[in-house]
Amino acid sequence: VGVSGSQIYLDQTSTFNNLTGGTVNLSTLSFNRTNGGIAIVNNAGIINKTGAGSLPISQGTAISAFNNNSGGIVNVSAGELVMQSTGGTDVGTYNISSGATLRFTDARTFNSGISFTGSGALVFGGGTQTFGAAQTFASGALALSLTGSTLTAANDLTIAAPFTWSSGTITGGGALNTSGTTTFTSGTLTTKTWNNSGTVGVSGSQIYLDQTSTFNNLTGGTVNLSTQSFNQTNGGTAIVNNAGIINKTGAGSLPISQGTTISAFNNQTGGVVNVTAGELVMQSTGGTDVGTYNIS
User: Longest C-alpha distance within the chain, in Å?
Assistant: First the structure.
């Protein structure tokens, strides 16, 4: 099916099923829900987004659900595809080519089998995205951004790919594991443990440790602080453990916890805190140190 000239209008209660073996080609037009009811798009075949520019999967009134089912493939080969629907469950594949972007802006559930491939950009930009199983974003592949969504994961969320966190929340029972380069400018970790073995650059805003959350800078991990550090929010226990390297750079005085004081900062065995410029104030309500503090 090649879609051009107008959207596919799904009127009242209508469903579009792209079955195994089916192909839908989208460039500038997609689907539209009209006259209320429930409009659903199910994909078990191939959907191709081609052409420059940004295209929402539903234009006009958002469709009720887009489901990328088992065996389903969505190829974003150019421009941007925005997954704008009021719901949906994914177990298929999203393949994003270099220079292209896939953006999620509404509530979705990613279950076991979901796969994100390619070398483009994957953006979580609004709504709540729920991961029903452990999820890994491998290195050397996609560039991942969190710009306003809430990511909920009961199992581990592992990010080796380049990760930009500029707003939004990560929560749930599983750990957040980062081993690549993370650029942090704003965001909240809620009732979760963040294990870092890569490089985290903090600027723009503190890392908010909400309720009961822990940041572990593991052996091999590096955290670069200049004007921003950590903040405990909404009570609970916020702990920072360092077994890697924390660098304080830049002029001026920086408390290790800004706003509400974190519960504990622990410089553990093998941990190194380098103060290369300005002042670092070890402001926490507790902590135990067996590591190294190096003051230039």
Answer: 69
